[in-house]
Amino acid sequence: MGGAERGVAGPGQGVRFVRLATVDWAVVAAYLLFSLGVGVLLAKRAGRGMEEFFLSGRSLPWWLAGTSMVATSFAADTPLAVTELVRTHGIAGNWFWWSYGVGGMLSVFLFARFWRRARVVTDAEVTEIRYSGRGAALLRGFRGFYYSTIRNCLVMGYVILAMATLVGSLFPGVGKEYAVAISCAIALLYAVLSGFWGVVVTDLAQFALALVGATAAGFFALDKVGGISGVARQVGESEASGLFRLLPAGGDAWLPGSAFLLYLTMLWWCTDNSDGGGILVQRMSASKDEREAVKATLWFQFAHYGLRTWPWVMVALASLVLFPEMADHKAAYPETAFAVLPVFWRGILVASLVAAFMSTIDTHLNWGASYIVNDIYRRFFDPGATERRLVLVSRLATVALMVLGALVALQYRTITGAWILTISLGAGAGIVYILRWFWWRINAWSELSAMVASIASNILIRWIAPDLQFPYTLPWIVGLSALVWLPVTFLTAPVSEERLRGFWERVRPAGFWGPYRRGEGGSSLGRWLLLWAIGTVSLYAFLLGGGKLLLGAVMEGAALWLLTLGGGYLLFRFLEKERWSE
Asked: For residue 473, is it within any domain?
């Protein structure tokens, strides 16, 4: 059995060797060959035009678009970051990302339909549908540049860092620079060849691999340490009570109750994806119609939070027993998984992490290139460009973004720290992104000033209060940004009446539209908000029910899952009676 040897430090100072066998490498090679084959087979189809390259011709069914959302929303960084959170803040530390489920359900029942009706290629494009004048053009260009380069490369940086950590675990002698280069080379080829078609097709395989690999790692890891009771026994009963808590107490040493409240009451609406923007918009727009976009986003929410969380948590808990002194918390996930998995299953795990990386990085390459081509190149430099030229520019932009993302990756040290940075930079603008769908008075200058003020507020807070930690910085960022965008809104001219009426007729949003409303739209808001409430309760019942079952509270877990079934039945009945625009 051939393979690469690597040392794994145990709870003490001893070292034992884990060998990746030939069969493990065969599993990884099979996935890479599959991805390359997809890239080659779909290259011609992706090259037909810009909408094929970035949106798969707007032809995706809900199950493919939704599964692609799930697959691309995590990469090799996510299980590593979850391990960081559990090891430092307990299971409840995951509310750092679980809290987004509240806004996610709002995206299902409101924003998914709005984005699909808008028929945009990128979320930046909607600015010139919603706003008018020079400010709208300036905002579109600024958003296109900011999200394609700065915001996008910050995300790609920590995704690449996680993959480099994995490569470093497999090959301890490989330097960070070489690990980053290997990680980038793996992903670039089929992204350039097949565009968005390659992304969504390989996402199906990635989703299956991810679930199987993570579940196997969690099962073997907990079995190695004697299950949940073994973890509690070896970390100590007093520590375990805080470690296992799903909802933190007020004075919890693992996750303070004040941080939890800020997560749950602020984080989901004050970030730059508060209205479902970003990579999810690409999949909403690529769906066949409005109904498929809503169903895809609903499937994504339950799979993203409920299905994937607990296998990662299982490995993280076991790592506290197997590697209690490990200072690099993100490395504890691959170290634990490789230490406990037998032959073949190691290959499945490695393939699943490679697949997760490729799915996410290729999405961000394709998504970032869509801004460069649609919102900068075609909009400002070559409005009459042929489809062939646009595809060529798309492929060149993809390569350039990979280089920038790799350079950013070399600057990162922790994954959760990188998450916090990207969230904080957009925290002051999230409320404006929501309000633009509900209030006619929001204009391009509102949005542009909120984006700039949010970035400036982060710099100011770091300067005047360097000891103030996330999430306690959020109220300050939001408040300081509001002191800028609110006056700007009322001191600048409103959007033209013609543009507002055109936006209403195209998107039919809800809320405060006064004389610009024509026909149905806002009258559905009450029903949509009721569905949001039912969906949110059902989602968290599903998520927490899985946690209760894992921790041995069978009756509580079963009761929560029954609540999920009841909520799911109500959602199904409501959606069957929904009137769709297409």
From this structure: no
* Assigned token pair, 484: 């800028």
Q: Within 13 Å, how many C-alpha atoms sit on residue 237's CB side?
A: 0
Give the pLDDT confidence score for residue 4 in this predicted structure.
Answer: 35
**What token pair was written down for 189?**
């080829």
Confidence of residue 9 (pLDDT cuts 50, 70, 90): very low
CATH number at residue 355: 1.20.1730.10
Total-model pTM: 0.86
Residues near 568 by beta carbon (within 8 Å), at least 6 away in sequence: 538
pLDDT of residue 221: 94
Query: Per the domain annotation, does 463 fall within a domain?
Result: no
Instruction: Count CA atoms within 13 Å of residue 529 on its CB side.
Output: 7
Q: Which residue has the tokens 């809104």?
A: 489
pLDDT > 70: what percent of the chain? 86
CA distance 247 to 241: 11
Instruction: Give the number of domains in the chain.
Output: 1
Residue 63: how many CB atoms within 10 A of its CB? Answer: 13
Most confident of 360-369, 413-422, 472-481: 472-481
What residues make up the domain containing 318? 22-82+129-232+296-415
Kindly state whether residue 310 falls inside one of the protein's structural domains. yes
